[in-house]
Amino acid sequence: MSQMTKNALADSLKALLELRPVDKITISDITDDCGVNRMTFYYHFQDIYDLLEWSWIREANKVLNGKKTYDTWQQGFLQIFNAVSENKQIVMNIYHSVNREQIEIYLYKLTYDLLFGVIEENAAGMDVRDDDKKFIADFYKYAFVGLILDWIKNGMKADPWQIIEHLDVLIHGDIKKALNKFRTDKINQTAADD
């Protein structure tokens, strides 16, 4: 029952985001749309942004659906673009609100999860510290999210597949090179790579 209530609250927020920016939506708007009282809302979530984050994590699991490998990262990234595009009005209402950073947080989470899966796969057989893997994932996360935010800012007009193809050309083999530079099990591999 609890999961059904959370899903209903998330669906109400999504419906309201089709109509107006997040900073123009109140908890009363959500609970009225959902047909529950405010205490029910507060039983599950601290505030609207907590609900928004929970909703995004739920959507992220559907969007990526296992596309976290070196062979599938392009499909995973394309699915992120598609999810943003399919929810264009919602994304624009969040993007143009006072708390635009919420969309950045969501995109950072999505892309980090995607990239860390790719990094873990590429690090197989290497001894690379977790902090270094996280650093590499963060580096690429900021680049990927920057591309998506620029695409959103420009009205989502560019073909996402072209962006992904350019990105693939740019970074092909670079994750493996970065991991080799951070290896602790062998002498730095960059001398052999250069």
Write up what this structure looks like.
- By secondary structure, this protein is mostly helical.
- Helices cover 73% and strands 0% of the residues.
- It is built from eleven helices and no strands.
- α4 packs parallel to α7.
- The longest helix is centred in the C-terminal third of the chain and has 24 residues, at 130-153.
- The radius of gyration is 19 Å and the shape is elongated.
Write the H/E string, N to C.
HHHHHHHHHHH
Helical segment count: 11
Q: Please indicate the percent range of residues in DSSP E strands (runs of 2 or more).
A: under 5%
What is the 3D shape? elongated
Count of individual beta strands: 0
Tell me the Rg in angstroms. Answer: 19 Å
Q: How would you classify the helix and strand content by structural class?
A: mainly alpha
Q: Which stretches are low in confidence, meaning pLDDT under 50 for 5 or more residues running?
A: none
Mean pLDDT: 85
- Percent helix range: over 70%
Reported for the largest beta sheet, the result is:
none
Distance between the termini: 59 Å
